[in-house]
Write a structure and sequence with these properties.
116 residues; alpha+beta; 2 domains; two-stranded parallel sheet; two-stranded antiparallel ribbon; 28% helix; acetylglucosaminyltransferase activity
């Protein structure tokens, strides 16, 4: 990577420039064919099999997705819980959004045990 990601890094380090830097940074890396990163998605637009899954870096269920949220929504994002553990273990994403420490904490514990 070296200097190839320098401009992205510089942009993200500017104070108050990007409100949610993780939502900019990882998709930029994952879908940037110029960086030649291992595992990068070189299909643009995303394959139809990935529609409704945000991007492969992060699994999230938005309120307007055609997926069931058996727990609750906070600001249109499904708070993941015990009912989602088996689903999360079967999807290709490398992270999941969003767990709350004080809401069904056993789900996060199960994911940690499975992952590590």
């Amino acid at each position: 990577m070296g200097t190839a990601v320098g401009p992205i890094r510089d942009l993200m380090l500017k104070p108050n420039n990007i409100r949610h830097p993780d939502e900019f940074y990882f998709p930029t890396l994952a879908y940037n064919s110029h960086l030649h990163l291992p595992g990068a998605c070189l299909d643009s637009p995303s394959p139809k099999s990935e529609y409704g899954y945000n991007y492969l870096g992060k699994f999230v269920i938005w309120k307007d997705y055609r997926m069931t949220c058996a727990t609750k929504y906070v600001r249109d994002v499904c708070i993941l819980g015990a009912d989602h553990v088996s689903l999360l273990q079967s999807v290709p994403h490398i992270s999941a959004n969003k767990f709350h420490a004080d809401y069904q904490p056993e789900a996060y514990d199960e994911m940690e045990q499975w992952y590590f």
